[in-house]
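Our consortium's second objective concerns turning raw sequence data into structural hypotheses that experimental partners can test. To show how far this objective has progressed, the report includes one record in full. It was chosen at random from the queue rather than selected for favorable results. The single chain below, 353 residues long, was entered without modification.
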Amino acid sequence: MRTLRAGVLTLMAVVALSPRPSAQSLPIALFERYLGALREETGIPGLSVAVVQNGRVVWDAGIGRQDVERAIVARADTPYLIGDLTQSFAAIVLGQCVERAALDINTPIRRWSSLPEAGATIGHVLSHTSAGVPGETFSYDPGRFGTLATVAQDCSERPFRRAVAEEVFDRLAMKDSVPGRDLAAIGANDHDYFDDGKLRDYEAVLRRLAAPYRVDRSGRSSRSDYPADTVTAATGLVSTVRDLAEFDLALDDNQLLRPDLREIAWTNVTTSGGSALPMGLGWFVQTYNGERLIWQVGNVRDAGSSLLLKIPRRNLTLIMLANGDGLAPPETLATGDITASLYVKLFLKLFLL
C-alpha cells in the first residue's frame, strides 16, 4: 500500500508539471494518460470509464483486459457486475413509488422485514441508519438494504428486478444492462418476469460479461469466480459505463424522479441533534473543498468493483467499472469517504482545478 500511495503521489507531481493544452481538454487528456498507470499500480486487469460533463459524455474508454486469458480488451460497452451501485437503482424505484403516492418512506420496515428495531422505517434502511436507535447512527449494512426489494415489489406490483428493467433499463434504452447475472440460466421461473425475446437479449449481453479477478496485496491478479447468483435491492445488477452514463444524464434531466425528491435523496440525513450522517437516501453525500459530492461505490469481493461520483455544481460525473476489487478501498463504504479512492483522488486533482 505504501508503494501504491507513493506511485499516486508521483503521478500527482507529474500532473502538476505537465505541459498544459487547452483548459477544456487538459483534465481529460491527463486523466486518460495516467489512468492506465494507476490501473497497473493497483493490479486491476481491466476497467472501463466514462466522464459526463454539461449534459454529454465527453470521454469513455476501456483500459486493460476484460478477459486476460482470452486476450479480450476492455471497452466502454463491456458489461460488469455493479455491486452496491444497485442501491441507487433501488432508490429510484422506491422514489417513483413515492411520486405515485404508493409509498411513504416513514412507514415502519417491519411490515416487510423482521429487523429487531421496531422504530426503523423504510427511510432509515435507505440511509443505512436503521441499526441501534433508528436515525441516530450510520452503519453500512447491505444485507438490511437488500430487504427493500420486497418493499419495491409491493409498491410497484412486480418483482424488483422487473421494476428496474422496465422503469430504468428499458425506459433509457440501457441495452447492455441486465437485472441479474442468474438470467443467463434461462428456466421456467424466469418466464414469470420476462418474455423469451428479452431473455435472449440478456443472455447475449451476459456472454460478454467481464471475467472476475482476485487482486492480492502485492497487486497481482488471478482468475476467480463470481459470487453465487443473487439479486437484491443492494446488489446483483449488471451494466456498462455507457449505460450508466445514460442513467446519470436521466437523473440530471429529471427523467426518473422529480427534482424535489432527487434533492432529498442527495441530502445528508441528520440525527435528532442535527448532526449530518454520511448518506442521503441510497446515495452517499460528502463535501470536499467546498464541493458537494454525490456517490456510490460497489465491491464484489475478489471479482470486481464499481464507482459513480457526481459533482453537481460542476455538472460533472465520473463512472468506473472494473473486473478487480480495487477502485475504492473496502472501508470507503464504512467511513463514507470517497476520497480514500486513489482513482477519485486523481480525478478530483485534475477536474477541480
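The partners drew two points from this record. The longest strand covers residues 56-67. The radius of gyration is 20 Å. Both points have been shared with the crystallography group to help prioritize constructs.
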